[in-house]
Amino acid sequence: MGIVGIFSCHWAAMAGKSSGDNRTRTSVSIFIIAGLCCFFYLLGAWQRSGFGKGDSIALAVTKTAGENCDILPNLNFETRHAGEAGGTDESEEVEELKPCDPQYTDYTPCQDQKRAMTFPRENMNYRERHCPPQEEKLHCLIPAPKGYVTPFPWPKSRDYVPYANAPYKSLTVEKAIQNWVQYEGNVFRFPGGGTQFPQGADKYIDQLASVVPIENGTVRTALDTGCGVASWGAYLWKRNVIAMSFAPRDSHEAQVQFALERGVPAVIGVLGTIKMPYPSKAFDMAHCSRCLIPWGAADGILMMEVDRVLRPGGYWVLSGPPINWKTNYKAWERPKEDLEEEQRKIEEAANLLCWEKISEKGETAIWQKRKDADSCRSAQENSAATVCKAADPDNVWYKKMDTCITPDKGNGEDESLKPFPERLYAVPPRIANGVVSGVSVEKYQEDNKKWKKHVSAYKKINKLLDTGRYRNIMDMNAGLGGFAAALHSPKFWVMNVMPTIAEKNTLGVIYERGLIGIYHDWCEAFSTYPRTYDLIHASGLFSLYKDKCEFEDILLEMDRILRPEGAVILRDNVDVLIKVKKIVGGMRWNFKLMDHEDGPLVPEKILVAVKQYWTLGDNNSTSTQ
User: Fold this and answer.
1) Strands (E), 392-550
2) Which chain regions cross the lipid bilayer (predicted)?
């Protein structure tokens, strides 16, 4: 009980005793005294929650300057809510989860190399997601490699990655003359070069910016297909453009792992037979720099998929073969007839999509998607364009690509889309036009206020949120993107994940805010390498998946993708979090359950955690760096 509660309850009891000296104590006076005691007890408990008037409790969740999770106060809410927890027996023994075998240090369950080889190679099917069945899932903790260290802070991480974190030298040999990556002592150095920009990504982006409005906030979200080590996205960041980069897990080992170690948004992915896990009209610009994607094949089906995710007025950049083939076919060591036919098919598909070529210089061509693409297509005489019949262009999870064009109408108009950063809190077109059922402009604005309040509370809990300690952040159940918007800073980025089973599909809204994200089902592994996120946030996620899959599987996946000494913030109902807490007790996490920022009577609680530092061969669950 707080000081106010103790003092006030004592005063109330003394008042009752004094009255008893003068007259018989009645049941009414006893009721009043008891009521006062209860009132001040609750007031004191509210103060003790850490958010009451007069309290100033500094809660640290990462080991820094000698602090660790153990200094978090015990809020004892389990006792207050034992009944609500469904009678959870805290005395039950916690199952300790063991480390996985060393061979799984860089395990990517849904892009496992051995499993991939059992699928057809046609149209890159074998490089797509192929997840293990339930009986083959690992039930252990993925170890970090020996010598693993915390990545360098941004922006140093853009140029340097510790060798121990991703010990793969193959790219330093294969891409030596292209300036991708160099091995220097105990670090990899990334000079910013690429196959199409050996002189550096900055100069290459300068060339693009002479045609594409990169600097004024018109272009905010970009898609980099076949990204390599994501230098294009890394150097776009300082121009306030955020790129979603993807590349397959193939012979160029660790491309995406390098990208994320550098602090650049990236996922393992490929343009094959399945639609990309992004909503329609998501990106202001799409890019391919010698990405080896057969754009003209199969009647332009891959270009049609890019068209689906490209906003009206958006840009498509293609650098490398077959652009300017007449000059370069000898250097590329390819028959000029093949290159000529390849470019013809690309130009034909672009014309069908109503993309206008606005620049071709050297080996780089830039097309712009017409803002009135729908009317342009309908006006084309004898158009071979087939319009997609699917009712929802955002329903893409494990859906096969079709040789058809996605109409731009019917999913919110983009005319009102503001430049960034104004876009972050402007009303998104999908909401303004009533496309998202049940989400009005008023509810959107209320959601923003709520998340500003929540994030303010998080910053009191974790003093490192604003310091740049956490570069790669994930929101596992992103909603309208309120968490990422409230947290927005040039020091970090947020991967907003839209669960495929969410009641409302709002990922398109998130992109209209100038943020990035991806569709995913958390009953499966995420398309990333182990140890690629510094902080993971999830609000209502476990309630959402309560009857869908095992909590242990979700928590093990969180542990796989979280870096040693990375932080976790879970927000959910108390009964759910108590079940989560029991599993977490067997993991190598330090954790505490905390009250809602509005006090202990709110059934929604917060679980904060830090993943302990431990590496391959270290069997001590309490080991530290």
Assistant:
1) 472-475, 493-499, 516-520, 533-539
2) 27-46
